[in-house]
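Researcher: Going back to the complex we discussed earlier. I've cleaned up the inputs and rechecked each line, so this should be the final set. Can you rerun the prediction on the complete assembly and write out the structure?
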Amino acid sequence: MSGADFTNDNGVLRFRGVLTLARLGDVADRVAAIDGRPTAIDLSGLERIDTVGAWIVHRLVRDNDIPVEGADANTARLLEQVAAADQPVKVRPDKTPSFVRVLKQIGDAVCTAGHTLIGLTGFFGATLIAAWGVIRHPRRFRYNAVARQFEVVGVEALAIVGLMSFLIGVVIAQQGAIQLRQFGAEVFAINLIGRITFRELGVLMTAIMVAGRSGSAFAAQIGSMRLAEEVDAMRTIGVSPMEALVLPRVLATVLLMPLLGFYASLLALLGGGLFTWISLDIPPITFITRIREVVPLTDVLTGLIKAPVFGLIIAMAGCFQGMQVEGSAEAVGLRTTSAVVQSIFLVIIINAVFAVFFASIGWV
Amino acid sequence: MTAILAKPAVPASVAPHDDDMVICVRGLRNQFGEQVVHEHLDLDVRRGEILGVVGGSGTGKSVLLRSIIGLQTPSAGEVTVFGEQMLGREETEARNVRRRWGVLFQNGALFSTLTVAENVQVPLREYYRRLDATLLDEIAGYKIAMSGLGPEAGPKYPSELSGGMRKRAALARALSLDPELLFLDEPTAGLDPIGAAAFDSLIKSLKDILGLTVFLITHDLDTLYAICDRVAVIADRKVVAVGTIPELLALDQPWIQEYFNGPRGRTAAKGAETLHEEAEERASRAAPPAVQADARG
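Model: Rerun complete. Updated structure for the full complex:
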C-alpha cells in the first residue's frame, strides 16, 4: 500500500494510492494550494479511501462544481454519504469580544455572589423550618444519622485536630519566647499561649480544619446523591432531605465545634507547656498556675460562644453547596471547592465581628 | 456456517494468524479475588461482520470488552487484534493498534470539559498533529452530522445534551479516526425505541459504507435481530455458542432457548420479520436504498 498522492493533469486531479487519514501526508495542504480551478477529479487510481479522503474530494467537488470520474461503487456511496453529512454544523461557540467577555465575567461573578448569599439565607431558613418540624414531631428525629455524623465530624477528627493544635501551641511558645527574650520577659510567653489559644486560634484553626474535613465532605456527599437522583428519590418516598441529610449534619457540627475547639485549645496549651518546660525550664506546675492567673474565664467563654456559630456556617455552606449540584460530576468538584472557600471566608469575617463585639462589651 | 458449541475446557491454543480474523481471543481467564468471571473463553470476530455479544447480567460482557481493548489485564489467555498480540505490549506499539479502533462506552464517556466538537477532535489531534485547523473543524462537522446530531450540537458541552444525543456524540468520537473496528457497549440502552432503531440503522449503514467490523455488546433483542451478522452467547464463564440467530435457536442450550424464545425474544423476532418483509417490499418497488435517510435519522 502506498500513501496518498495526486497529480494535477491540466486541471484534472488524478488521485492515487490510499487516500485515508493515516496515509494522508501533505495531500490536504497541496490540494488547498492548487493554482487555478480544477476541471475534473479522477479517482480510478485509488486503492482505498475513507471518510477523510472522501471529504477532501467532496470539498473540491462542492467548491468547484466539477465531475468525479473513475469512482467505484463503494467510493461513490462514501462520497454520497459524506455529501449528505455536509451540513452547516457549528463547531465552535460564538466568539465575543474580550472586553465584553470580561464585563460578562464580572457581572456573572456579582450575580453568583448575590444568588449565593440569598440562597444561603434561604437555606438557613429552610433548615430552621425543618428543625421546628422535628421539634414539634420529635419522633421524626433521626438519632442514628446524628450519631453517625457525631462520629464522622467529631471523633474521627480528634487525631488530626489534636496534632495540629499541639504543633501550633509549640510554635507560638517558641516564637513568643524568641521575641520576648529581647526584653528579658520570656515568661510572658505563657500569657501569649494561654490567651491566644482560648480566645482565637484554638477555635479558628479547628473551624478551618472542620471546614476542610467535614464541610467539603458534606458538599461532596450530598452533591453525588443529587447526581444519582437519590435526593429526588427521598422526596418522592416522602422523606424530607432537609430532615434526613441536612439537619443531622448541621446539628452534629454545631454541637461538636465547641467541644473540638476546647479540646484544640487544651492540646495547644499542652504543646506550649511542653515547650516552655523543655526549652525555658519552666516547670509544669508553674505553667498551670500562671495560666490560671492570666487567662480570664471570659476568654474561654469567647471561644465557646464563637464555636457553634462557626460550626453552623461550615455545615450550612457545605450542605447548601451540595444541594446546588446539577449536571455533571464536575459540578461536585466545583461545589465542594466553593463550600470550603465560602465557609472559611465567612468564618474569618464572623470572627472579626466577634472580636469587635467582645471588645466593646469589655471582654478583653 | 454452523454454530459452534464450545467444547468444555479447551486448552489455550496459539491464536491462528489469519487476515480474516480481526479479534481472536484464546483461553481467556479473568478473576476478581475469588470470583472467576471468565475461564477458557475463546472468541473470534471476522472482518466486516457485526458480532453481537449477549449474556445475562454479570456474565462479564463488559469485562470481555475491557480485556480486548486492554483496560483489564486478564489472569491468563491471549488476545490478538488485527493479528497483533495485545497483552504485554509496549504502550508505543499498542498505540498503532489503538488508532485502528474506536470504542463507544456505555455512558458515552465524553470528556466533560470539552465541547462535542472538541471531543471528536481529541483522537485526531492526538494521532495527527499536522492536520490544519480548518480541516479538523470540517472533519468534526461532518462526523457530527454523520452520527445524526443536529447542527447546533458542536459547541455544546456533554452536560447540555440528552442521553441519546450523548450516545451519538460518543459515536462521533469513536468514529473520528475512521476505525476499521468499532466496539459498542450497549449502544441502545436508555434510548427510546425510535432513537434505538435509528441508532441501529445508523450503525448498519456505517458498517456497510465504511466496511467496519463491529463488536457489539447488547441486551436489546431488536438490535440483535436487526443488525447482527452473528451472535456470541456468554454463559458459564465462557462463550457457549457463536452463530446466526437461526443457528443458535437450533441449539439445545437452556439459556439460549429462554433468551430467544422468551416473550420478549419472540416479539423481537416478529418485529424483525415484519421489517424484513417491508424492506423486501420496498426493494421490489425498486426504490433507492434508504441508507442516507437512515444515517441522518
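Model: Worth noting: The interface with chain B takes residues 20-22, 24, 26, 28-29, 50-52, 55-56, 59, 74, 77-78, 80-82, 84-94, 327-331 of chain A (CB under 8 Å).
Researcher: Good, that matches what I expected from the previous run.
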